[in-house]
Design a protein that fits this description.
With 208 residues, the protein is of the alpha+beta class. It has helices at residues 12-18, 35-41, 48-62, 105-119, 190-205; strands at residues 2-3, 25-33, 68-71, 74-77, 82-89, 93-96, 135-141, 162-166, 169-171, 174-184. It is built from five helices and ten strands.
Length: 208
């Protein structure tokens, strides 16, 4: 982790502006093509949830702005950020889980499977994220193909990115999946969101 030098930071003026707003987050949703994942990888036994999570986390780790966090008056940048997905538990509820990100798919897949299995044993929602800033909060809504989403935040200083994805739908012989990204505008802009979707698609295509 490093603390950015605010005096030499190119986006300091944008940071100063968006830090004054009571609601400084922006959220957008776009479809990505998961045809390779559905038609090639899933029949081989690849978990589509794990693969989708891998794609969004790999993209987030490629973008410095999605690895940056507000830390009091400072902005810090992590070398690596880690996933915190939601997992279903009894009673139509969910819980949080955490695990270390791995850039290679086999290790990520194994870490993810172990964390989800352990997370499903929880009986109540517990938030253990207060002591760390190097997380990306993720969730999946497999019941619907949504076109927008807004996530709850703890306030204007909450700089954790939120990422969600939804139900696959087939259109003209291709399978599409909506992916939502919500970020703090003091740290990231539409340009960075565009790169995020580009990198997500590149990783999904590798499952071919």
């Amino acid at each position: 982790m490093k603390t950015l030098d605010m005096h030499d930071w190119p986006r300091k003026s944008l940071y100063d502006y968006f830090r004054t707003l009571p609601s400084p987050h922006f959220s957008l949703t776009a479809d990505v093509d998961v045809t390779a994942l559905i038609s090639r990888a899933k029949p081989r036994g690849v978990s589509v949830f794990n693969a989708a999570l891998y794609a969004v986390m790999r993209a987030a780790n490629r973008i410095p702005e999605l690895r940056q966090r507000l830390n009091g008056p400072d902005v810090v940048e992590f070398d690596t950020v880690h996933p915190s997905p939601t997992v279903p538990i009894d009673g139509d509820r969910f819980a949080f889980c955490y695990f270390d990100y791995a850039d290679n798919w086999p290790d990520f897949d194994q870490n993810c499977a172990q964390a989800i299995e352990a997370g499903k044993q929880q009986t109540e929602l517990e938030d253990d994220s207060a002591h760390r800033l190097d997380l990306v909060f993720t969730t999946c809504l497999p019941w619907l193909h949504f076109t927008s989403m807004h996530h709850p935040v703890q306030g204007p200083d909450d700089s954790f990115p939120r990422i969600a994805w939804g139900k696959f739908t087939e259109q003209n012989g291709r399978w599409l999946m909506p992916v939502n990204l919500q970020v703090h505008h003091a740290l990231a802009d539409g340009l960075h969101a565009g790169r995020f979707y580009q990198y997500v698609q590149e990783t999904l295509d590798e499952f071919e």
